[in-house]
Specification:
Length: 192
């Protein structure tokens, strides 16, 4: 289901687009894309408001929300690299997700992002430039198995201390690193 309202002034190239897309079947959509051989499934809902001038892409402004449900997202470059980085089993496909974003100054500002499944929740924010450069900061929470091993208090401490992932690079080749928070660095630099 797609609903769209487009206003275009041909003299000034000013455009306004309001669109709402609901229940897009990702498995059917991906058949005709570069992801045709990947494990992708689920449903996509997408709301977008976009305004600006077609000849001034730097000044295009917009905001929107992308929601995924009943999904099977694993082999999408950034998500797959995160799963590999934190050494989760490859069966850990994400089944729900939501991205709230704003578009301005030739970038997509991710106001909030959340992907989850039964084992992990990834949350964060950041930006993606129109040239595909990434600058994301994400936290993750692994549920369940750590408590079986009796390390829950240690896990909670480490989660607060070390679990900020910095995602740079590009959409096609993301680079993921662990960001150590300032008070951890101060602790190891102290003379005590």
């Amino acid at each position: 289901q797609v609903m769209a309202e487009i206003t275009l002034d041909l003299d000034t190239t000013k455009i306004e687009l309001k669109t709402k897309i609901a229940n897009i079947d990702l498995r059917k959509y991906s058949r005709d894309t570069a992801y045709a051989e990947k494990e992708i499934g689920g449903y996509l809902d997408f709301d977008l408001l976009l305004q600006g001038h077609l000849n001034e892409i730097q000044k295009v402004w917009g905001e929107g929300v992308l929601t995924l449900r009943k999904a099977q997202l694993l082999e999408v470059p950034v998500l797959l690299d995160i799963i590999n980085f934190i050494s989760l089993e490859r069966q850990s496909a994400f089944d729900t997700g939501e991205i709230k974003f704003r578009i301005s100054d030739a970038k997509v500002q991710i106001r909030s992002v959340e992907f989850k499944n039964n084992n992990i929740i990834i949350k964060g924010k950041g930006k993606i430039k129109f040239n595909k450069e990434l600058d994301l900061k994400l936290t993750f929470e692994i549920k369940g198995y750590l408590e079986v091993w009796g390390v829950s208090p240690l896990y909670r401490y480490l989660k607060r201390t070390f679990t900020v992932l910095k995602v740079g690079g590009t959409l096609d080749k993301p680079e993921i690193s662990l960001k150590i928070l300032p008070y951890v660095i101060e602790y190891f630099q102290s003379d005590d």
